[in-house]
Specification:
Growth Hormone, Chain: A; 0% strand; mainly alpha; globular; MFS_dom
Length: 410
């Protein structure tokens, strides 16, 4: 069980800002973008294509933000980032054409690379706390799991009451009011130096060495790409695809609302057992649960019970996967350069995954929601297939120790 101590405060503060950050910078598009497209005279695929471009080019900022956190800590990186993100989100209220939409989304997503999970993970890893970095990462993601549950209905309520222009102003204002001061206060702890951080991580988790290090990075990133490719599609097309399975919009939205709480359930479970669970195991568990959710969806998703079970399984897996994407690079490659490493991983995965909303929207329009979900399941299968190629440094260390004491057979 978790024992409370003040060193949890940075993670709790960042967890709160992840609800606001992900809710505003990711989940609101599913509600507002279709209405914006209609008013701006754009097709749905064009609007989501612009979103994909904004995600792609915005992700270029990720390595820079990671390097800044490695060098200076996350306090001012995330504080300034939340200020810029709030202003960029408010600028979406002024959009009048496709070009303006692209520029506004680009600015918002670039600022998001200064405030979302990867920067938060790197920021707590740099703080001098009597708390393992992996525990802080688990706490941060525990909060973020409810972002969709809160922000989808909240954004819809704001839109129905005020329209999309005023909604963007309110959402941007909340980023400024909540995230700017919380980032400034919660990350004010002293920083630990890189040698201490690297040494602490090495004692717990042996790093990959030599050729295994390069091979591990390759297969980990490839697995992250396949495992994350469907995330943007689920966020934007869940309701549309579920309706295509024969459910009403209300039931589709209800099932979507189930995903968020079960992300939190999965993360809470991981947090309880994380002391005894190596990140490779955590990641395997996440992929298995997500695939089980899609298999249930494809076979039993035509029934309400099957739909809810599928949403719960997927939500638990996706929630745990977010933790693993932060702890696995730390376990395999150590704490030195952790922020920059997460940044480069992000720019690669986001760059490739940015096309997902457009690709899956085309699949849905061309072949239907069931086939769109089937391709998502295929992506998860490929993520599992590439995951098994990642070397396990614990086995490498065990082999090395055994070899050292083997008798000379020559």
């Amino acid at each position: 069980m978790i024992r409370w101590n003040p060193d949890y405060l940075p993670a709790v503060g960042l967890g709160l800002t992840q609800i606001v950050g992900y809710g505003t910078l990711m989940y609101t598009y599913a509600v507002l973008l279709p209405h914006m497209a209609q008013d701006l005279g754009l097709s749905l695929s064009t609007a989501f294509g612009i979103l994909s471009l904004g995600l792609f080019f915005g992700g270029v900022v990720a390595p820079l933000s990671g390097m800044l956190v490695d060098r200076f800590g996350g306090r001012w990186v995330m504080t300034i980032g939340s200020l810029l993100a709030g202003l960029a989100v408010m600028s979406l209220s002024l959009v009048t054409n496709a070009y303006g939409l692209f520029v506004a989304i680009l600015c918002a997503e670039a600022a998001g690379m200064l405030v979302l999970y990867n920067v938060a993970f790197a920021s707590v890893a740099r703080l001098d706390l009597n708390l393992p970095a992996q525990k802080s990462i688990s706490v941060i993601t525990l909060f973020g799991g409810v972002a969709s549950t809160i922000y989808w209905p909240f954004t819809l309520w704001l839109f129905n009451a005020q329209g999309w222009q005023t909604t963007w102003i309110i959402l941007g204002g909340l980023l400024l009011i909540i995230c700017v001061p919380v980032h400034a206060v919660s990350l004010s702890h002293p920083l630990k130096d890189h040698s201490e951080a690297s040494h602490a991580a090495t004692n717990d988790w042996p790093e990959l060495q030599g050729a295994d290090r390069k091979r591990g990075m390759l297969w980990m990133v490839v697995s992250f790409i396949f495992g994350g490719y469907l995330m943007g599609a689920v966020m934007t097309l869940w309701v549309t695809n579920v309706q295509d399975l024969g459910h009403t919009a209300a039931y589709a939205a209800l099932a979507g609302a189930v995903i968020g709480p079960f992300k939190t359930v999965g993360r809470f479970f991981e947090m309880l057992v994380s002391r005894n669970m190596y990140p490779l195991v955590t990641y395997a568990l996440s992929l298995g649960l997500m695939l089980a959710g899609f298999v249930t969806l494809l076979t039993l998703g035509f029934t309400l019970t099957g739909l809810m079970i599928a949403a719960a399984l997927y939500g638990m897996g996706d929630g745990i996967k977010t933790i693993a994407r932060g702890t696995l690079p730390l376990a395999l490659f150590g704490a030195k350069g952790y922020g920059a490493r997460l940044g480069w991983i992000s720019v690669i995965t986001l760059g490739l995954n940015a096309s997902a909303p457009f690709v899956f929207a085309w699949l849905t329009q061309s072949f239907g929601g069931w086939w769109s979900f089937a391709v998502m399941a295929a992506c998860l299968s490929l993520a599992i297939a590439t995951f098994v190629m990642i070397p396990d440094p614990r086995k490498r260390r065990h082999d090395t120790v055994e070899d050292r004491y083997l008798p000379d057979r020559g």
